[in-house]
User: Fold this.
Amino acid sequence: QVQLVESGGGLVHAGGSLSLSCVASDNIFNYNYMGWYREAPGKQRELVATMSVGGTTDYADYAEGRFTIARDGTQNTVYLQMNSLKPEDTAIYYCNARLLRRNFWGQGTQVTVSS
Assistant:
């Protein structure tokens, strides 16, 4: 079972940027998708961005144009660059690896955006 370890969260002012990293214990190309999800207090976990094994990306509407997902296969690492952050982006951000119908999750990293 793959282990996913996120880092890079923190506290930032509105309009600022953060870069999240997710290091996988397995080859990320073994998974159909790698991605990021987030969970805000009192809300369900939701998609932020995903990247298919072929490199196709998919973004939530709120993330389009502000967030960028990237990967480094040599480091088995997936990144999420977040720019122009807003208070409503405050959430725990989770790394996800998907293999067919199986989902694997990291422990999450807290992102807090102050107004």
